[in-house]
Design a protein that fits this description.
This protein has about 300 residues and is an alpha/beta fold. It folds into 2 domains: about 1-115 and about 240-305, FAD/NAD(P)-binding domain (3-Layer(bba) Sandwich), CATH 3.50.50; about 130-235, FAD/NAD(P)-binding domain (3-Layer(bba) Sandwich), CATH 3.50.50. Helix content is about 25%, strand content about 25%. The strands form 4 sheets. Strands 1, 2, 3, 4, 5, 6 and 17 form a 7-stranded mixed β-sheet that branches.
Length: about 300
């Protein structure tokens, strides 16, 4: 069993930031990532709100830079899936188990992020990959000069709708609310784009098609009237679900299954911290998740050196 000072679960912006600072502080730091570094941000075509980069940067480039910085600082990154976290019976350490091996570590930072929330409506699962998508950057080019629908009204939905205008002829944006919820600058861009048509107080209840998306069925929230709209693609951005299933009751979670921490990213269990949008109260912005990772790494360092968990 390998011994580490710090094991970080997840290589998104929170995990990579924790790895950079953990290594710089002198801790033997390991970042475990299930798929590939970056998380959801890797699909962002252009990030315009990260301080210090006024010209904007793609998600893949930013994460690539962070990964390089983490490795150059001395952190290690491995691709594997964490299956269990448990207390080491012989010490105050924790055991992090993966399918391949186990690690004995003084501290664990859980930064495994979130996944895009699904609508859970008829047709969504069956037509995923056949017109239903959760990534405009990945799949937008399949809809050149076609009509597509975007479901959602937050930052991600607005950004993806704008991305889709580079490909699609017409983008229909559906919101369950009376107004858009994303950043004002994004709202202004969406509202001024002649290719985007916004529909408020509409709930999508079914995605229809035999072998590919053909139409959506929606309900007007005020009148409860039902209607069907022809569309070639459905892009869904209605929020996030935290990746906390593998914790198996280890930590206290809120009603949305996010980890409860204090302002130092510490949980109630000494040596276990959480960072990024997996924790309760996260602003779910790239810059704040990076800050969470740094805060968690500093808290871990202080705990290892003082053995105090206040």
């Amino acid at each position: 069993m390998e011994k580490k000072d710090l094991v970080i679960i997840g290589a998104g912006s929170a995990g990579l930031s924790a790895g950079i600072f953990g290594a710089r502080l002198g801790m033997n730091s390991l970042i475990i990532e299930m798929l590939m570094p970056g998380g959801l941000v890797i699909n962002s075509e252009k990030i315009e709100d990260y301080p210090g980069i006024p010209q904007g940067i793609s998600g893949s480039e930013l994460i690539g830079n962070m990964q390089t910085q983490a490795l150059d600082s001395g952190a290690e990154i491995t691709l594997s899936e964490v299956t269990h976290i448990k207390k080491d019976d012989s010490s105050s350490n924790w055991i992090v188990e993966t399918y391949e091996t186990s690690y004995d570590t003084k501290c664990v930072i859980i930064a495994s992020g979130s996944r895009l929330k699904k609508l859970g409506i008829p047709g969504e699962e069956d037509l995923t990959g056949a017109g239903v998508s959760y990534c405009a950057t990945c799949d937008g080019a399949f809809f050149i000069d076609q009509n597509v629908s975007v479901i959602g009204d937050g930052d991600s939905a607005l950004e993806e709708a704008l991305t889709l205008t580079q490909f699609a002829k017409k983008v229909e944006l559906y919101s369950k609310n009376q107004c858009l919820k994303g950043q004002k600058i994004l709202q202004d861009k969406v509202m001024s784009n002649s290719q985007i048509y916004i529909h408020y107080e509409k709930e999508i209840v079914e995605i229809i098609g035999e072998t590919e998306v053909e139409k959506i069925r929606l309900i007007d929230i005020k009148s409860q009237a039902s209607s069907s709209i022809d569309t070639n693609g459905v892009f869904i951005f209605t929020g996030l679900d935290p990746n906390t299933e593998y914790l198996n009751g280890l930590l206290e979670l809120d009603c949305s299954k996010r980890i409860i921490t204090d302002i130092s990213m510490k949980t109630k269990l000494p040596g276990i911290l959480a960072a990024g949008d997996i924790r309760k109260g996260s602003a779910s912005q790239l810059i704040t998740t990076s800050g969470d990772g740094v805060t968690a790494a500093i808290s871990a360092y202080n705990y290892i050196n003082s053995n105090e968990w206040i």
